[in-house]
Inverse folding.
C-alpha cells in the first residue's frame, strides 16, 4: 500500500515504520526541522528486542514538510492520523485546501470526538476509526521502542478496512476488525481514563493512587460514570487486542479488596512502567492536555444523556486549570485530600 503518516511521534513511527519494514511505501509529514533530521538518519524502531533503521536508501520511505507537495506525489491509499487530540484542529485546517486529494484517514487518536471532526472536513467516506493498544515508548522524533505488543483495532465499516487490516497484520501489528466503531473507541477510552487524570493532578504513581482507599474509590466512581454514559448511548464494552476491557468494566462493580490488586497490576504493566500521558504532558511543561477529549468527553456526553458525571467533570476542570497555569502545580501535588474535597 501507499500510505501517508501525519507525524513521527510514538504511534506514527511505530505504525508507519512497521508498514515500511513490511515493504509498503510510506511518507511521513513532519515539521521542517524534524523532517530534515529524519531524512538524514531515518527512523529507529526497537521491536521485540531487535533494532531496525528505516532509511530512504533501504526502504520506500520519505519525509516531507509540505502537504501540498506530498499530495502531488499521490494518490495515497490511506493516511494514518496519530496526532495528539489537541493537534487535530490545526491539522484539519491545513487539509482544507486539499480535501479532494486526501485519501481516507485511519484515525488512531485517543478519545471519541476526533473521527467526527475529521468527517466534518473530509466527509464520512474518508474516515476509518482505529485504535492502538500496544505500548510504545518514544525516545525522540522517529525513534521508538515497543514496550508491550498487543495490537491495532480497525472499524470494519469502510470499503478499505479489510485491506488495511491485512496490511497491518502483515507488518506484525496484529490487527482486529470491529463491526461498531463506537464500541471500539469508547472501550479504548476506558483504558485511557483509569489512573490518568488523578496521577497528573496529584503527581503520584498509579500504584500510590490504587493503594489509597479513597483515591481508589474516586477512580472507580469515575469509571462507573463513563460506563453509565456508554450504556445510555447503547455502546458496548468490548475487549481490544491484548486488552481485556470487559474485565476492567467488571472491576468497577467488584469489592475493592478484589479489584484493587488486579487493576494495579494491569494498569502498571499496561503502560510499560512509565507514567500516564496526562502526567507526562503536564509535568514536561506542555501547555495542552488531552483530558478534555477523555474525562471532558464523558462529562459532555453525560450531559447530553441527562446523566450526572461529577468526578469526570471535576478532574477535567482541575487538570485543565493546572495545564493552563491557572493553578500552580504545587497546589495539589501529593495532597489527595484537596482533590477529594472537590468531588465530595
Amino acid at each position: 500500500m501507499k500510505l501517508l503518516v501525519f507525524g513521527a511521534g510514538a504511534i506514527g513511527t511505530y505504525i508507519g515504520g512497521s508498514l515500511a519494514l513490511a515493504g509498503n511505501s510510506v511518507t511521513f509529514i513532519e515539521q521542517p526541522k524534524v523532517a530534515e533530521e529524519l531524512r538524514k538518519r531515518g527512523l529507529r524502531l526497537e521491536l521485540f528486542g531487535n533494532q531496525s533503521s528505516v532509511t530512504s536508501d533501504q526502504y520506500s520511505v520519505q519525509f516531507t514538510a509540505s502537504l501540498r507537495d506530498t499530495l502531488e506525489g499521490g494518490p495515497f491509499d490511506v493516511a494514518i492520523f496519530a496526532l495528539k487530540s489537541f493537534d487535530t484542529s490545526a491539522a484539519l485546517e491545513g487539509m482544507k485546501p486539499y480535501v479532494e486529494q486526501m485519501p481516507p484517514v485511519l484515525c488512531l487518536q485517543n478519545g471519541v470526538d476526533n473521527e467526527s471532526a475529521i468527517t466534518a472536513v473530509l466527509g464520512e467516506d474518508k474516515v476509518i476509526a482505529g485504535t492502538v493498544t500496544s505500548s510504545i515508548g518514544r525516545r525522540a522524533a522517529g525513534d521508538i521502542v515497543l514496550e508491550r505488543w498487543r495490537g491495532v483495532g480497525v472499524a470494519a465499516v469502510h470499503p478499505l478496512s479489510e485491506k488495511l487490516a491485512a496490511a497491518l497484520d502483515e507488518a506484525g501489528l496484529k490487527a482486529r476488525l470491529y463491526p461498531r466503531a463506537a464500541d471500539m473507541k469508547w472501550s479504548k477510552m476506558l483504558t485511557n481514563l483509569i489512573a490518568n487524570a488523578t496521577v497528573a493532578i496529584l503527581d503520584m504513581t498509579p500504584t500510590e493512587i490504587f493503594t489509597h482507599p479513597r483515591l481508589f474509590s474516586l477512580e472507580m466512581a469515575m469509571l462507573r460514570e463513563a460506563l453509565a454514559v456508554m450504556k445510555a448511548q447503547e455502546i458496548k464494552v468490548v475487549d481490544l487486542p491484548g486488552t481485556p476491557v470487559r474485565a476492567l468494566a467488571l472491576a468497577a462493580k467488584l469489592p475493592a479488596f478484589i479489584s484493587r490488586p488486579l487493576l494495579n497490576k494491569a494498569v502498571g504493566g499496561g503502560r510499560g512502567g512509565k507514567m500516564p500521558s496526562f502526567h507526562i504532558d503536564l509535568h514536561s511543561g506542555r501547555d495542552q492536555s488531552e483530558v478534555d477529549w477523555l474525562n471532558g468527553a464523558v462529562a459532555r456526553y453525560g450531559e447530553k444523556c441527562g446523566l450526572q458525571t461529577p468526578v469526570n467533570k471535576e478532574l477535567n476542570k482541575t487538570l485543565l486549570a493546572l495545564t493552563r497555569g491557572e493553578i500552580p502545580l504545587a497546589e495539589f501535588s501529593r495532597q489527595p485530600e484537596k482533590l477529594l474535597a472537590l468531588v465530595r
